[in-house]
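Reopening this ticket.

The earlier resolution said the output was attached, but the attachment link was broken on my side. Pasting everything inline this time so it's all in one place.
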Amino acid sequence: MTWFFLTLLSALAFSGSDAVSKWISRDISDFTNTYIRFLYSAPFFLLIWIFLQVPQLDQAFWIAVGFAVPLEILAWILYLRAIRMSPLSLTIPFLGLTPVFLLIVPWILMGEKVSLLGGVGVVTVATGIYFLNVTKSSQGFLGPIKAIAHEPGSLLMILVAIIFSFTSTLGKIAITHSSPLFLAGLYDPLIAIILTPFILKNTSQRREVFRFPWRALLIGVFFAVMAIAHYYAIEIAKVAYMIAVKRTSLIFATLWGWLFFKEEQITGRLAGATIIVIGVLLISLA
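Inline output:
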């Protein structure tokens, strides 16, 4: 169960970085907010190289990284735009859909199969998402579903969940053909390097990067802890199960939205989050 506790640590750190990112999102662009995550976490990842032995890398590793990096950048830009546009409690929970998509993607790319209990857990996660807008049920059974269409951040996060199902699977392929420590030391700093020329071209974005140094550093610390724990957990667990447990970050994010951003209708959203957690537990037991 080591992977389970590593994943919970990753989830808690993930929600922390989300809360701080939302805090500064009104004052900087979505692109800069994305860049801050990777720039301020990069020094922590680069420290890994002190202890790192470079594994022998094959073509499969570079193909996986080559496809994953642009998808990762796109996903994070959309992700941070979503939490800027809509409440945390109505955006982050939609990442719970990633395990549903992960029933299909790893099967296609890696031949992984999910047990019956794991499948029931994933369906339960999806059911919990329905209850996030349960207050709309007065408009009919489809009310909570229709409400999603009127929340732009929710729609964006569904797209992010789809993209993350691919990047998570590609990440596991890369780890299989290298090591968790190596991918952690390479992947996120590489994204920071790729994004840097775009930031340097824009004067306002350059200024935004250093506008909130302490908050940005906090994002970097949370993000580094999240990623390193993620890489180690995903090496020893099935992708669908690990990502599903990691989505307990939505519980923390829902609470942060209530505590720090005074988001409303928290009872229904926590009810939906609780159902999602039940699904997560079923998946972990599988």
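Reporter confirms the inline version is readable. DSSP finds 14 helices and no strands in the chain. The chain has a mean pLDDT of 84.
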